[in-house]
Structure formats: structure tokens, C-alpha cells
Design goal:
mainly beta; Pectate Lyase C-like; 3 helices; 42% strand; binds 2-acetamido-2-deoxy-beta-D-glucopyranose; Glycoside hydrolase family 28; Glyco_hydro_28; polygalacturonase activity; hydrolase; glycosidase
Length: 412
Amino acid sequence: MIESHKFLVTLIFLALISCGAARDLRNVTEPKTPETCASLKATGGDDTKVIQKALDSCTKGKAVALSSGTFYSGPLTIPSGVNLLVDEGVTLKALTDPSLYDLGAKTCGTLNEFGVGCKAFITIHGAKSSGIYGKGTIDGQANVTMVGKNKTWWELSNDALVAGNYQNNPMLVQINDSADITVYQITLINSPFYTLTGYETNGWTVWGITILAPTTARNTDGVDPIGCQNVTIAHCYISMGDDNVAIKALTGPSRHISVLNNHFDEGRGISIGSEIPHGVSDVYVANVTLNGSVNGIHIKSNTYRGGHVRDITYDNLCVYRAQHPIYLEMDYVHLHGNRTPEFRRITINNMKALKKGEYIIYGLSESNPVQVTLNNVHVAKGSAFLERFANITGKFIIDSTSEDRCGYAGIH
Ligand SMILES: *[C@@H]1O[C@H](CO)[C@@H](O)[C@H](O)[C@H]1NC(C)=O
Ligand SMILES: *[C@@H]1O[C@H](CO)[C@@H](O)[C@H](O)[C@H]1NC(C)=O
Ligand SMILES: *[C@@H]1O[C@H](CO)[C@@H](O)[C@H](O)[C@H]1NC(C)=O
Ligand SMILES: *[C@@H]1O[C@H](CO)[C@@H](O)[C@H](O)[C@H]1NC(C)=O
Ligand SMILES: *[C@@H]1O[C@H](CO)[C@@H](O)[C@H](O)[C@H]1NC(C)=O
Ligand SMILES: *[C@@H]1O[C@H](CO)[C@@H](O)[C@H](O)[C@H]1NC(C)=O
Ligand SMILES: *[C@@H]1O[C@H](CO)[C@@H](O)[C@H](O)[C@H]1NC(C)=O
Ligand SMILES: *[C@@H]1O[C@H](CO)[C@@H](O)[C@H](O)[C@H]1NC(C)=O
């Protein structure tokens, strides 16, 4: 008796450890807005210099507050230790002149085969403990005609699709090589390209923010951790034209990421991939409702990208409607190369999908299947199940109906 009791305790303890590890390892709580070092009022003209000067001379640990009016600005850099605060009712608009964002090759605002000609509207680079705060709005103005062009950034993105190449558009917020970064409460709208992207950043909290763009706005990704560790994305509302969240691993691994208590409307779902050659592991997605995204859970790679995806846990997800509530594919867009992707220890607990959809699980081969565990996963009658090289433990329970209710993940 005593021995088996001890054994059980040990098992529970081990389970707790492994569960605790598969997420942001920090203890993350709701961020606190920093005190201000300066408070600015919009002039109605180009305020780039005024805002940048205030940021550059702000005391570390404090924030430059944009406190009234509508600001127009070109690209801004938030220095290490400094924060930008956009107060409630205030909007910071990105000027639409592509030459302001150009990285030197005079390609920003044009199409070519690279698509990397612009700097972001807001850049945080090599910083420690910086952030963006406030209940105001940062507007990328991608729906507005560019200066010197006869089209908007989003129209340029659509042209790229037709031309089969890439648009050179700015990201709205780009964080690189940084640590302890916070993005809190802010509303980010109309991004010309990816909305909020972090590269190689360790310790990144995205809490209570709103991201909006029309569903037709190409490549407007919501939050993209790329080669990042210790990330929490919580209490957010995201509705735009691409992946609501996309975890990638281009130049380093992405690990220990928590996606908690979010509501996603339009978009392409919670994605891992496809640019993941360095692997993604220890991701915990819990309490997320999705209403209208093309996909729910999407993990995508192929032999061109490769990448090991391991220890990914989804818990308490509800999908109102999605074409593909679950889409795990190792042959994404049929791109082939000489890398070997692996999808192991993917666990989906307590999921409910209210409308019929297509469930796709495609592994690579008999010896390299997608390995997934389903626990209490309820799907609607009439759903389709497409499986190939899928090692599934557990099964789909086909009993949910559109009369069911999701409850609501606790956003804001
Ligand atoms: C992640 O957070 C844990 C806990 O604070 C810390 O020990 C670890 O070094 C962090 N990892 C990285 C890559 O910063
Ligand atoms: C997180 O909190 C737990 C419980 O209070 C504590 O044991 C642990 O050391 C904390 N971890 C970090 C990285 O602060
Ligand atoms: C662009 O979008 C903003 C906010 O979403 C809206 O207020 C504005 O009218 C739009 N402008 C154009 C030219 O469509
Ligand atoms: C701008 O585009 C509109 C249609 O989108 C077209 O009618 C107009 O002639 C164009 N103007 C110039 C200067 O190219
Ligand atoms: C940020 O990182 C990306 C990916 O490594 C790189 O392409 C880009 O040039 C970097 N940007 C800055 C401002 O350092
Ligand atoms: C998920 O939501 C439940 C109910 O609101 C809450 O008790 C739980 O702490 C949440 N889980 C996480 C990981 O935030
Ligand atoms: C889901 O989306 C539909 C269509 O936009 C909307 O009518 C409905 O209110 C949304 N439900 C929730 C809970 O967000
Ligand atoms: C399928 O997954 C189980 C673990 O859930 C593992 O024991 C088994 O070896 C896997 N089979 C293949 C062919 O990978």
C-alpha cells in the first residue's frame, strides 16, 4: 500500500514537473504600466523627431507617453530599458511614405524576389526591459494610399500574389535580439505586414492587447515569436488576415511558449511553422476560443523546412467554426528538400469544435508519422477525417453540435 502510494506521488510529481516545463518558465503576472518620463501632445504634423528624441532621452524604466491627439510618425526605435505609452483615446499613425522605411536599396514599397527592403514602424533591437503600453492605438495605415504611389500597402501585397513574388512592406512592430520585453493593452491595427514579431528574444510578455485588420489583408500575422524563449501571449483579441499566432524557428529554436486565455476571430489560427528548421518545443496553449479562423490548431512543415516539433500541449480550446479545426501536416504546400521534420508528443486535451470541419493529420512516412494524443476532443457530426501516417492515441468524439456553447476565454 505504502509503496504504491509513494509510486503514485512520484508519478504525479513527475507529471507536474513535465507539465510545468512545457510552457513559459517565468512566473508571468499582469504587467504594470511604468511611470512616465515625458508626456507629448500631437502637433498634427510629422512628430517623428519629437517622439524619437523623447525616447532617446527617457530615463531607463520609464515611459514616453503620447497623451493627446493623433500623432503621425515615420519609423521609431525604442531604446533599451525605455517604454512607449500610448494613452487611451490617442492614436499613433505610421506615415505612408515608403522612402521613410527604406533600408537602403530603394525597394521599400515595391515588389521583388526578397521582400526585405523595409524597416519596421517600431523597432526594439538589442534591448532589455523595454515595452509598449497603454490603451491607445498604433495604426499602420496599410489601408491608406502610399505617398508617391497609387495604391495602399495591402494592394501591393495583393499585387505580389498575382506577380508571384514578394511585397516590401514594413512590419508594424519588430523586436530583435532582446530580453524582458512587454507589450500590454495596446491596440495594433492595419499593419502593412506582420503585426507584432519577435526574433531571438528571451522573456517576452504580450498581455491584453488587441490586433485588428481585415481578413483580406495578406501577411498581417498577429503575434509571431521567431526563435524566442519564455514567451507568454495572454488575454489578447486577434482578428486579421493571416496566422493569429505563428511560432517559428528560423535562426534558433522557439521554446517555452504559453498562449493563454485568448480570443481569436478572423485569421488562420494558432500556427507552428512552417519556417522551423531549428525546432519548436514546450508550447502550452490553453483556454483559447476561435471564431472564424480558417484553421484552429495548425502545425506545418515539410522536407524543405524540416524542424522537430515536440511537447506541444493544447488544453481547453473551443472552435466555433473553422474549415480545419486541427491541421497537422508534414508536407505543407508540397515543398521538398533534404530536411526531416518530426512532429512528436502533440497532445490535445479538452477541445470542442462546434461546426463540422475537415481534420487533417498527414505524417511524412510509415516510420515518421505525426504522433498525437487526443483526450476528450469533441467534434461535430459530418466532419471529415483525413489521415496519412498518423500515430493517434485516443480518438475523436463525434458528438458536438452548433447549439453547444464555448464559454469565453477570459480576455482583457
Ligand atoms: C527562461 O526562464 C527561466 C525562469 O526564469 C530561466 O531560468 C531561463 O534562463 C530562461 N530562458 C532563457 C533562454 O532566457
Ligand atoms: C515560480 O513560482 C513558484 C511558486 O511560487 C516558485 O517555486 C518558482 O521558483 C518560481 N519560478 C521562477 C522562475 O521564479
Ligand atoms: C483605414 O482604417 C481606419 C481604421 O480601421 C479607418 O478609420 C479609415 O477610414 C480607413 N481609411 C481608408 C482610406 O480606408
Ligand atoms: C490610380 O488608380 C486608379 C484605379 O485604381 C486609376 O483610375 C487612376 O488612373 C490611377 N492614377 C494614376 C496616376 O496612375
Ligand atoms: C531582425 O532579425 C531578422 C531575422 O534575423 C533580420 O532579418 C533583420 O535584419 C533584423 N532586424 C534588425 C533591425 O536587426
Ligand atoms: C483556464 O481557465 C480556467 C477557468 O477560467 C482557469 O481556472 C485556469 O487557470 C485557466 N488556465 C490557465 C493556464 O490560465
Ligand atoms: C462569431 O463570429 C460571428 C460572425 O462574425 C459573430 O456573429 C458572432 O457573434 C461571433 N461569436 C463570438 C462568441 O465571438
Ligand atoms: C506511436 O506512438 C506511440 C506513443 O504514443 C509509440 O509508442 C509508438 O512507437 C509510435 N509508433 C510509431 C510507428 O511511431
